[in-house]
Amino acid sequence: MLRSIRIGIAREAIQEGDMVSVISEPGSVYKTKRDEQLTGESFESVKQGLQQSKLACNELLGRITLAMEYAADYGSTDGGHHKMWVIDQMVRALTGCSIEKVKAMDCNDQSYEYDTQGKSEEYIKFVTEHNDGENGLNTYEWDKGIAP
């Protein structure tokens, strides 16, 4: 019989008979007998895996939150070209593009700065895969849209 049990504050384990599988990160499972304690190297390995998983989850949560902010702030703007910009910004947020400061000049020759998202390796890969199609490279074109 499988059952999930909590170990300490942050470790999760699944008990099956007298064996316990400790799950520290996706793809990493440590098995031990139910009455044995994880000690030394195996405990540190599980602890490190849990810390890395927590950091990865926090990063993903930040990406999702930023994408949702773009949807909430700009998603109802009229115009297909503006909606394409929102989709592009959401994809950039979800693929971990960094925020960059850009300097520009307004119509009165006054300089100002604004934040924009750059390109991450994940974003470039996503766009490249989107553009490739049945007719080879660049069968399609990724539309970045126009900022509202």
Verbal overview:
The chain is an alpha+beta fold and 148 residues long. Helix content is 41%, strand content 26%. The strands form 2 sheets. Strands 1-2-3-4 form a 4-stranded antiparallel beta sheet. A two-stranded antiparallel ribbon has the order 5-6. The longest helix has 35 residues, at 40-74. The model is unreliable at 1-11 (pLDDT under 50).
Query: How much beta, percentage-wise?
Result: 25-35%
**Helix/strand-derived class?**
alpha+beta
Order of helical and strand elements: EEEEHHEEH
Number of helices: 3
How much helicity do the residues have? 40-55%
How far is the N terminus from the C terminus? 56 Å
Taken from the alpha-carbon principal axes, the silhouette is extended
The overall pLDDT, averaged over residues, is 78
What's the SSE blueprint?
Elements: E1 2-7, E2 11-16, E3 19-25, E4 28-33, H1 40-74, H2 80-94, E5 99-105, E6 111-117, H3 121-131
Task: List the keywords.
single chain; 148 residues; alpha+beta; 2 domains; 4-stranded antiparallel beta sheet; two-stranded antiparallel ribbon; extended; disordered N terminus
Put the structure in a nutshell.
By secondary structure, the chain is α+β, with helices and mostly antiparallel strands.
